[in-house]
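During the reporting period, our protein records have gained a structure token line. One record among many is quoted in full directly below:
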Amino acid sequence: MSKPVKIPIDGTLDLHTFRPKEVPSLVKDYVELCQEKGIYEIRIIHGKGKGVLRSTVHRILEKHPLVARYHDVHDGAGWGATIVYLRRP
């Protein structure tokens, strides 16, 4: 069994190093930890690929009660990341 990976809670979550089965719980936990730290805008990097991971992330965000809205990044880098805006307490 591998040790848990420590990731910084700084508003950017790069999913490239995680297995797809880890993504749902990781995204949910990360959103909650960001809100606890007062971070209300998050960048989730999921990559371009075939769009499967992007779709998974968007499904999770649609159902999360702390998420106010989200959109694909539109900065010339394509749709390899999603910006998430959290509700303020």
Observations:
- Residues 23-36 form the longest helix (14 residues).
- The chain is about 30% helix and 20% strand.
- The domain at 25-86 is CATH 3.30.1370.110 (Ribosomal Protein S8; Chain: A, domain 1).
